[in-house]
Design brief:
Elements (H helix, E strand, L loop, with lengths): L8 E10 L5 E6 L7 E7 L2 E8 L2 E10 L6 E8 L2 E6 L2 E7 L10 E6 L9 E10 L1
Antiparallel strand pairs: 1-6, 1-10, 2-3, 2-9, 3-4, 4-5, 6-7, 7-8
Length: about 130
């Protein structure tokens, strides 16, 4: 899925099912120098949300495992600098990022291991992305 990005405010919500133990990327930006965006990965079985750009990164590590083979609902909201995450309705935490993301590239919603080296064994569905 392309041509998506949250600049100042919005919502990302999706369901995920996986048994993966290693890192897998769910949502990321195209790699263009200077672009700023939200990246979502599964790391050690937990959802991790990152506000990232060149020479800047803020991490929001998850607390609820999502790699047990069951479906899990992930919700991420950005409102100005505040980014909050939930898994199955449970708060995972919040971070402060840049108030507005400046980006010329779109998001890629897909499942792959870091750097696209191997497939990320997972399923996603019920995807909502709303930019405010």
């Amino acid at each position: 899925m392309k041509d998506l990005n949250l600049a100042r405010a919005g919502l990302i919500q999706f369901d995920i099912r996986t048994t993966r133990k290693k890192t897998g990327i769910v949502l990321t930006k195209h790699v263009r120098e200077g672009d700023q965006s939200i990246t979502v990965i599964v790391e050690a079985g937990l959802i991790k949300v990152m506000g990232d750009a060149s020479f800047y990164r803020a991490d929001l590590p998850g607390k609820t495992p999502v790699n047990d083979g069951a479906w899990h609902r992930v919700r991420i909201e950005k409102d100005g600098p505040a980014v909050r995450a939930w898994v199955d309705g449970r708060v995972q935490g919040s971070i402060n990022t840049l108030p507005t993301f400046q980006s010329d590239s779109s998001w890629m919603l897909n499942l792959h291991a870091p750097w696209g080296s191997t497939p990320f064994d997972a399923e996603i569905g019920n995807i909502w992305i709303v930019s405010k």
